[in-house]
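Feature request, filed as a ticket because there's no other form

It would be nice if the structure record came with a short human-readable summary line next to the C-alpha cells. Right now we just get the raw output. Example of a typical job, pasted below so the devs can see what we mean:
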Amino acid sequence: MLSKALLGLVFLGYPLLAGCGTASSGGGVGARGGAPGAAAGSAGALSMGGAAGSSMPAGGANASAGMGGASSAGVGGAGAGGVVGSAGTASTVAFSDDFEGVAAGMSPDPSKWNATVLSDCMSNAPKPVIDSSQHHSGAQSLKVAGTASYCDYAMVGNSTAFKALGNVVYGRYYVRFETALPAGHTAFMIFPDAMSGHALRMGGQNSALQWNRQSDDATLPSQSPAGIALSKAPPVATWTCLEFMIDQAQGLISTWVDDTLVAGLVADATPTADVDMAWGSAYKPALTGINIGWQNYGAGPMNLWFDDFALSGTRIHCQ
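Raw output as currently delivered:
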C-alpha cells in the first residue's frame, strides 16, 4: 500500500556559507558507524497507513509485528553511547499522522498539531495545509509553501506527545522537496530547547542536510567541503525517508536517510574532524517539542510535503 520510490542521494556542490544564528532547530542521536543492522523480525514493516485520522498504525499493535525479534547489532561506531532501540528492538509508535483524517485544504488535525509562533521571526507565509496533489501513502500529505522572505516561517508543531517520550526520542517521516535545497541556510524541523533558551534546527546549507544549534550557530557537519561531502543532498520531486534519534541526556544525535546512517549528521561524543569536532560534547538539550515546515534565512521559497510522520521511544525505520 505504501509507495517506496526513494532515489539515491547525490551531493551538490555550492559556495560555502557560514551558519545563520537567528531562529529555531532539530536533532537525532546514536553512533557514527555503517548502515543499521538487520532486524531479526524485519519482514513485516510497520504500516502507517491506518484509518483516517488515526494516531496508531493500521492494525494497531499487530502492525508493528515486523519490528520485533531479537535485538540486532544495530548501528556500529566508536563512542556510540549505546544506540537505544537498535534495529531489532520492538518499536511502539507513540504518535503518528498520515494526514488522511482531515479534508484537503484544511489545517492538519488540531488534536495532533498546533500552529507555532517563533517570536524572533515572521509568520506571514501561508499556513501548512492538507494536500491531495502529493502523498507517500494514502491520498494526502501535509503541504508547506515557504516564502523567500527572510526569517519567515510556516510550521506546525507538537509538544505533548514529544515530551511524553522522555529523554530519548526517535522520529521518522517522509519529505518531498519541489526544488533542490538552496545554498543558503534553511530549516524544516525545529526543536525548542529549554536548556539553552534557543532551539535546535534541522535543515540545509550549501544544498545539503545539516543540524544547526541556534545558541552559538554551530553546525553538524562543519560547513567545510569535507564536512558537506559527508552529508546528503535530498533528491528533488521524490519522497525521502528521514529518521532521527536524540538522546538529550548524553547530547547524542543520529540521522538516517532512506534507512542509511549519514556519517556527517552524527554527534556521538567522539570528536571527528569536519563533522562534530566543532559541535562538541557539552550540549545537552532539554527539548520541549517538535515543529515541521519551512523557515529560511534569505535562501528562497520552497514547496515541500510531509507524510507518514511518527515519534517513538525506539527506532521506527522506513517501510
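Something like this underneath would help us a lot:
The domain at 93-312 is CATH 2.60.120.200 (Jelly Rolls).
Helices lie at 160-164, 225-229.
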